[in-house]
Amino acid sequence: MTEVEHFPLMIAGAVEVKAEGKPLEVKSPYDDHLIATVATANAAAVESALTCASRLFADREGWIPVDQRIASLERMIELLKEQAESLALGAAEEGGKPLTDSRIEMARCIDSIHICIDTLRTDVPHPPVMGVNAASEHRVALMQKEPIGVVVAVSAFNHPLNLIAHQVGPAIAAGCPVIVKPAADTPLSCLRLVKLFHQAGVPEGWLQCIVPESRQLSERLVTDVRVGFFSFIGSAKVGWHLRSKLAAGTRCALEHGGVAPVIVCKDADIKKALPGLVKGAFYHAGQVCVSVQRLFAHASIARKLADKMAAQAKALVVGDPISDATEVGPLIRPREVDRVDVWVKEAVAGGAELLCGGDRLDHHCYAPTVLFNPQHDATVSTREVFGPVVCIYPFTGLDEAIEEANGLDMAFQASVYSRDIDMALGVANRLDASSVMINDHTAFRVDWMPFAGLKHSGLGVGGIPFTIRDMQIEKMTVIHSNAV
Q1: Which of 52, 109, 190, 289 is catalytic?
Q2: Averaged pLDDT for residues 209-231
Q3: Across the chain, what does the average pLDDT equal?
Q4: Secondary structure (3-state) at 366
Q5: Active site residue 85
Q6: Which region, left, alpha or beta, applies to residue 361 given φ > 0 means left and ψ of -120 to 50 means alpha?
Q7: Residues 110 and 157 in one domain
Q8: What is the number of other CB atoms lying within 10 angstroms of the CB of residue 381?
Q9: What is the pLDDT of residues 387-433, one digit of tens each?
């Protein structure tokens, strides 16, 4: 029998304080086999991690110079390239995202570290002008960037490689000591990445990984007065709760989910739109915060579009995420399958037409599901499904569609499809969204662009350059000299 791998604590000084809690078992979401065990952190470990990080930040003479940060990030890129396939395979096994998509995520993870380096080399502060009036005569201003403080990053399960790159990479680039708490469902990818960061030259105390043994300890970690910046990716309920508990002075960024709307105008090119819409709806079994979920199509084309989406959804290969053939894998937990099934059945009972799917499959999978015209107050119409379900609603007037698209307390990314650029831009200007894609699906993203949830969907702006800026302060020094 093969011995199950155990991942020890990655906390500075944890051995000395005897800080291990009960091991966490990490199982495959596809077939429940035990992948590995992970040491959890008790109260002593949490305190050890915070003490170490705060002491490092307090010692200004010991801050890591920018050139050393860049050198470590460059070495990290080489290590990631060497282990790309094994990391992608590991992420697929523990998270359920199909291997083909996990490989793409791995490539993005590498590029995210590149962007951290590019940002350090190009994002310079701009000092205010002096000498333009009597009050500012004989003065010159200098600006420099400094780390904001200890960063605590809480991550989500659905992109276990690239989300860590988006939180830990910027913290290292900014020069902040960082403590990362991965999702309990997918901690292994994070632990592997942290180990590689250490091999790349990031001192262990500057990057610690912690899986607290309880939610109470997780909250204690986040809300400690020594935390300078809190980075959160996960559910709105948890994120807003933790924000309300932050210590005075702690800055934060929250990235939650949305119920992404798509408006398909009557002149849209359906043939061109379909591949992206299907991918955007069923990528990672819909477990994406900007997944295509609510699709408003003009009544003259709505049924045609729905039938074509259903036909393509039926053809998707659902199954083992580590198979190259699989296009849709399992949901992350069995209870999520239960929840999605309840929501779909509720919609059908309320009058929605089930065009395909609506079935539980083996191994915690759910059949890709297309619902036609659910009630607008149905759960699938008002809450983030986070499952392989897309809803299509016919409309007759654009005002009606835009009102429905904007009618929720969540707003993130949105899309509009039309061959008329004026119409598309007009719709885009009226949509409540931080980003609107024209003739592309809502889940489009590159890692250097701003990525921001509005309303209940988040706070602040994600994306590598924006996160690095959040994790730094700009300090101004004004020199008074008659020589200038």
Answers
A1: 289
A2: 97
A3: 96
A4: strand
A5: no
A6: beta
A7: yes
A8: 24
A9: 999 999 999 999 999 999 999 999 999 999 999 999 999 999 999 99
**How far is Cα 229 from Cα 221, in angstroms, rounded to an integer?**
12
393: DSSP letter: E
User: Exposure of 265 by Cβ count < 10 A (0-12 exposed, 13-18 middle, 19+ buried)?
Assistant: buried
Domain count, the chain: 2
Domain of residue 278, residue span: 261-446
- Burial of 164 from C-beta contacts in 10 A (0-12 / 13-18 / 19+): buried
What proportion of the chain, given as a percentage, has pLDDT over 70? 98
Q: Which residues have CB under 8 Å from 353's CB, separation 6+?
A: 371, 372, 373
Do 191 and 273 sit in the same domain of this protein? no
Amino acid identity, position 473: I
Q: Could you tell me the end-to-end alpha-carbon distance of the chain, in angstroms, rounded to an integer?
A: 76
What confidence tier does 152 reach under pLDDT thresholds 50, 70, 90?
very high
pLDDT at 476 over 60: yes
Catalytic site includes residue 404: no
Is residue 16 predicted with pLDDT exceeding 80? no
What type of residue is 113? I
Q: Specify whether the CB–CB gap between 50 and 179 falls below 8 A.
A: yes
- Separation of alpha carbons 454 and 305, rounded Å: 29
Which one from 213, 255, 327, 336 is the annotated catalytic residue?
A: 255
On whether the CB atoms of residues 383 and 259 are closer than 8 A, the answer is: yes
pLDDT in tens, 279-328: 999 999 999 999 999 999 999 999 999 999 999 999 999 999 999 999 99
Instruction: Indicate if 138 and 235 belong to the same structural domain.
Output: yes
Residue 129: is its pLDDT beyond 90? yes
d(CA 449, CA 461): 10
